[in-house]
Amino acid sequence: MNMDEKIVFQWGRIEGNADWILPILALLAAWWIVLRIYRYDGRELRTLWRWLLPALRMGAIFVLFVIYLEPQWRTERQTKQNSQVAIFVDVSQSMTLPESDAPTAPQRSAAATKLLFDSPLLKKMNEKHDLIFVGFDDEARKLQMFPMKSWSGEKSGENTSEVDAELAKREALRRTLEQPQGTRSAPSDAIRAWLNTQPPDAPLAAVVLCTDGAQNQGGEPSAAARSAQKMGVPIYSIGIGSASPLENYRLYEMEAPVRVQPHDPFFITGLVQGVGFGGISEDKMEQESNSSENSRVRVSAGRVKMVRVELHLLPQSENWTPESAENSLGESTLLQTQEILLGEEGRVVPVRFEIEPPGEGKFAYLMRVVPVLGERITSDNARVAEVEIIDRKLRALICAGGPTREYQFLLAAFYRDKTIESHVLLQSARPGASQEGDKMLVEFPQTREELFSYDCILAIDPDWQRLSPAQVEWLDEWLVRQAGGLLLIAGPVYMGESVGGWIEDPNFERIRAFYPVEFQKRFSAARQNTYLAERAWALDFSREGVEAEFLRLGDSLSESVRAWDEFEGVYGYFPTKNLKPGATALAYFSNPRAKNGDQKPILIASQFYGSGRILYFGTGEFWRLRTLNPDYFVRFYTQIVRYVAQGRMAQQSTRGRLMLTKDSFAPGDSIDIRAQLFDAQLAPLSATAVEAEVFLPDGRIQSVKLAAEPEQPGTFVGSFSTILEGTLRIELPIPQSEERLARRVEIVLSDVEREKPQKNMPLLETLARDSGGRAFESPDDAEIQSLPEIILGKTRVATISSMADPVFEREFMWKMLCIFVGLLSVEWFLRRILKLA
After folding, report:
1. What is the pLDDT of residue 557?
2. pLDDT of residue 152
3. Euclidean distance between CA atoms 46 and 30, whole angstroms
4. Does residue 300 have a pLDDT over 50?
5. Buried b (16+ CB within 10 A) or exposed e, 446-472
6. Can you tell me the distance from the alpha carbon of 407 to that of 411, in angstroms, rounded to the nearest whole number?
């Protein structure tokens, strides 16, 4: 907005020519009356006095006339509002897809920036419009504004530094637009919301929209078009991308255990998804297989797709990425192949491989969907997972308050398991009592180092009151920082103490915090603190419990469900109040009479405590699984122990842990890194910062500084982001050690943005047509270059007057008053001399 100032003289009462009529008529009428009066009064006077006296009266009246008109001096400012054009550019992740089906096609974002930055389009448009750049995904954000004639950096009168600043601003804008990050697209809502924020008198000439038109959120485009039409702002849409569906098959997810034992088979699972092949739904596939003639007709428009999924064992190496792994397929070993049927488009289909450990060491596995003929996007067909096979026994501490049946059978099962080293503490045992275990303990670990050497602790109705405050503190630290695993099994002895037990002891609030359930606030001696039924009741599993693999009694879900259905169940449970926030209930006691209102009694629940895993059993009757099959009991507890201990088993070092909020991020997301580091004495590491290395998918290495958190000794945090899709590796050298912590991270495009990746021209045409604009099929349309001539300018010049000068007004009025009084005084004096009445 430009301003020019000048000082002008104005009459305050006069705004137009018509305003002069009444004052002048009144003045003339007053003068005519004066002349009539003096014609009668001065008929005997000499000529000089006959004209002088009325002139004095008429002069006084004229002074009143001038005072009435309010003469004033004002400062007048002329403002120029340049015409504006809003350039809307899609910055959602669908813009990272190819611009066309051609093998060498650039990303859609690159095609958009090439049109905007490498053609004369915006330079010409900037000759008569300000350019406002707006980036949008599910909302609109103003990015930059370029005043008229500044786009090329050749504005007259600018010095070199100003030109360089404009060019730098332009390049920064280009980099932003070439790095789409949004996980959703709502072009209609984004345009409408942005227009609503503009002032009613904004000189907005047009909206130029560069997008693929993919809309997975928001309202109808016609609503945005109507808003634009009401404001007189036509939308000129430019379609980016291919209008035909991009047939694409991708490995949606890959899961593998971090560490396994050399003799334990393990599973690597993946999820495969296909889009753009015009698939049919599962029910239609079933109809087709029934060989019904009518069914065949109904599904003729759809397709099913068979794809092959391979699992490769990669050569020994570090920093494998899907790209480098696929380039080394000739050196890899093909382990297994499965063919899966994709029916409904977009539906995720699981694939599972069972693997025998090849030996000790760290092994990298590549799972890939073999590219289909004509598939354009293959960068998402493969993923890599690392599995460390280590011959280290899981160290378990079994701490029991008394020799319950659960304890006895569990002791025997673990003593025979060569992968578990069990240390046993029976708190009620007499000194020298014989027990089955690798090591018998007479007291709870007495040092931090001793306690921290265990991977998991099985607490079977223990007497927590025997622990000192220091031991409770160590147990808390072991869970929070060392990722320990804790299995808590309820019992009637120490948990059931009516008065004076640890459940009521205020000194054991921290122990109660370990449990994922809330206990009743008060007990009484007369109250029954355990519940027993007359017969066994089956377990009522929640959805999370059914899906939990560590609770399965068979190799498949159906086999496990069948086994649990055959299990007679348990007779009792320990009553609790409710589930804690953040905890998950996995199984309930199915006796309807045991309900506490709408609350079903909890038998199995889990929660995270810091980095540790805690599992709670509300009953100690799982030994009854032996009546169904002795192997079920062994399998059940072996899986449970490995589940709660997996945080410890996944640790690469006792000196620290490298933690992420998740293992998969979208391009552009902030990846927060959190590390817990310890010194050689396992005390929190004292340092101001540490530095991690990020091995990016394109081979570059990026350093990330992790700063110490003052309130949490030994904890370091930092973050970074990347727009590169693929697998990256984060490594953190542990100070004062040769060890390195490592984590792999997948950067994957938002699922929503992949579902309909084709260009949506109907949406773009609706926005343009209903707003009075025009739609262009692609950036290569030659008619786009005529936009600077098509878009009419709305530059406006407005005049703004300031308040009248009060000094002038005061002085002028004083002078006018003096003249008025002077004229009347002279007239009165002359009339007295001439002896007029």
Report:
1. 80
2. 66
3. 24
4. no
5. eebeebbebbbbbbbbbbbeebeeebb
6. 6
